[in-house]
Design brief:
This protein is an all-alpha fold. The chain contains three helices and no strands. The mean pLDDT is 67.
Length: 83
């Protein structure tokens, strides 16, 4: 669902690009699209980082030791912990 929002945002931004002959060169348009796509990818990376940080804070604010379900849901390395 998040990808659909990013895709529609990219489509909207592309529709705003100027369509004069100067800017209507295929390689110029490709560069502009690549820039938009890389920015959208960066937004997705930021979203994943926020989710990971929020989960990490939830784990660290729990009494020690954390409940087993918290340990197996998320780990900093991206590999599930064995509980």
């Amino acid at each position: 669902l998040y990808y659909v929002h990013i895709k529609s945002l990219i489509d909207f931004l592309v529709s705003l690009l100027p369509s004069d002959n100067i800017y209507n060169v295929p390689h110029q348009r490709t560069l502009e699209l690549n820039c938009l796509i890389s920015q959208a990818t960066h937004l997705i990376d930021i979203r994943h980082a926020i989710i990971g940080a929020t989960t990490y804070l939830q784990i660290t604010r729990q009494p020690w030791p954390p409940p087993p379900h918290m340990l197996k849901d998320w780990s900093p390395s991206g590999t599930p912990n064995k509980v």
